[in-house]
């Protein structure tokens, strides 16, 4: 076999792995929660290097019934209110972000909850084109293989809510000393408020208070599920 044939074989195998592999990883998530995520492993390495204990972050996985409806609504209101309208990519929000950038405003993120699940679960941190390409493909796979409700459950059980704190249950017990199923509207809004910077903002802090006021107003209305 010549080197060109070997290279062609490697490229073919690599392409198959990239295309088929995500389906093999995602389909079981219909039935089970992932035991860890790429972000959690990355944080464990950081905590080990910094001498923090415990090294592995806290995470308590709960079922859908163990999550407060207030928290689900608050997270949608804060992160991706059009979650049930798009298929993984919110082109309306992307367009707004680009337009704001052209006007000289700070470029804000337009990542959907599905995109965040893809990168938190499988990918490393960074902004390379390779990573963005993989994130896009994984987002498509997640939307194809899982229901919207399942994707939201996965997100709430893997989201980072502080230094060494992952998942709604661990966050609720850490900050409010109660299970996630019993969170009030205001408590849910405060947790949702810190998702953009969970290791810098506290749910009980000034920034969370200000952001929670806006989120609570949005929570008055159900998350849209159909285009009007």
Explain what you see.
- The protein has 228 residues and is mostly helical.
- The protein has one domain: Orthogonal Bundle (Penicillin binding protein transpeptidase fold), CATH 1.10.3810.
- The protein has helices at 3-26, 38-50, 69-79, 91-102, 113-122, 129-145, 148-158, 168-176, 185-193, 206-218, and strands at residues 58-59, 160-162, 165-166.
- Strands 1-3-2 form a three-stranded mixed β-sheet, covered by helices on one side.
- Strand 2 (160-162) and strand 3 form a beta hairpin.
- Helix 3 runs parallel beside helix 9 (185-193) and helix 5 (113-122) crosses helix 6 (129-145).
- The longest helix is centred in the first third of the chain and has 24 residues, at 3-26.
- The radius of gyration is 19 Å and the shape is globular.
- It starts with a helix and ends in a 10-residue tail after the last helix.
- The model has no long low-confidence stretch (mean pLDDT 89).
Task: Please provide a brief summary of the model.
The protein has 228 residues and is mostly helical. It is 57% helix and 3% strand. It has one domain: Penicillin binding protein transpeptidase fold, CATH 1.10.3810.
């Amino acid at each position: 076999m010549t080197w060109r044939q070997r290279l062609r074989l490697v490229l073919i195998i690599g392409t198959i792995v990239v295309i088929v592999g995500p389906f093999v990883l995602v389909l079981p998530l219909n039935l089970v929660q992932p035991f860890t995520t790429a972000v959690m492993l990355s944080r464990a390495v950081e905590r080990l290097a910094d001498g923090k204990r415990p090294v592995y972050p806290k995470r308590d996985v709960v079922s859908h019934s163990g999550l407060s409806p207030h928290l689900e609504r608050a997270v949608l209101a804060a992160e991706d209110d059009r979650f049930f309208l798009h298929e993984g990519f919110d082109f309306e929000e992307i367009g707004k972000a680009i337009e704001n950038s052209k006007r000289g405003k700070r470029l804000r993120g337009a990542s959907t909850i599905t995109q965040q699940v893809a990168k938190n679960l499988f990918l490393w941190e960074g902004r390379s084109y390779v990573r963005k390409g993989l994130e896009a493909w994984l987002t498509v796979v997640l939307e194809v293989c899982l229901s919207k409700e399942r994707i939201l459950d996965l997100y709430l059980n893997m989201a980072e809510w502080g230094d060494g704190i992952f998942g709604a249950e661990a966050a609720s017990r850490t900050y409010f000393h109660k299970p996630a199923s019993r969170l009030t509207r205001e408590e849910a809004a405060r947790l949702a408020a810190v998702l953009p910077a969970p290791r810098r903002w506290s749910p009980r802090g000034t920034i969370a208070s200000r952001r929670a006021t806006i989120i609570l107003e949005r929570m008055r209305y159900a998350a849209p599920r159909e285009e009007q």
